[in-house]
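Subject: Phosphoglycolate phosphatase

B.,
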Amino acid sequence: MSQANVPSSSSLPPGMQLRLAAVRALCFDLDGTLLDTIPDLAAAANGMLVDLGLAPRPVDEVGTYVGKGADRLILRMLEAAGQPTEEGSDAFAQARKRFHAHYRHCNGKEARLYPGVASGLKRMADIGLPMACVTNKPQEYIQPLLLHFHLRQYFDFFIGGDTLPTKKPDPGPLLEAAHRWYLAPGQVLMVGDSLNDAQAARAARMPVVMLPYGYNEGRPLDSVDADATVEDLDQLATWLELSRGLTPTAPSAKP
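Prediction pasted inline below.
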């Protein structure tokens, strides 16, 4: 379906009733899906550049480099600053060390919870659906963020970009999540904001729903192959309730 047309929360879009009724668990991306982490990532990436004697980049530009993991962000920042390099080089190792030194200090300081996330996750938990966070963010940063924003209790586990040998858009992390739940991939719904998330879900043969407010490396969602777009997680919770014949619960005050 067109990603530009988000159906109303009071009705299910064509074809979604059966897909959502079959869902037994959900995987969520983190950056751009649950939290807006661009301010912290930009602070760390620009701190890295300054340490290396390079000029910082605009925050909006940094946002277009987010989505494929920290190492890719570092490489793109160095390229934008006029110092391109490759993974494995001494220059990359030094830049990586500086980035993580900054990010460990600022992780969560300026990040914000997207509207509807806390209430939507609670409603999905109340339905009895297990959930996991599957992100390309390095694993050491995931739990501190989830704890800081009081979201950790909703997730059975989390899988980071360095947890497994592969990361999204490879289907490996999503297949690992399904395996941990003893579920078929088609019984797990991926919820994300980028082409990475959609490609990983399609490769894993999972249904996928997109959120329109995330990053997607600065590109529009119109061409992303997804089953539907929801305006926020409260709308997704309503759809899941409707697919189970439940009366939608009123969302609490957002976020």
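The chain is about 40% helix and 10% strand.

T.
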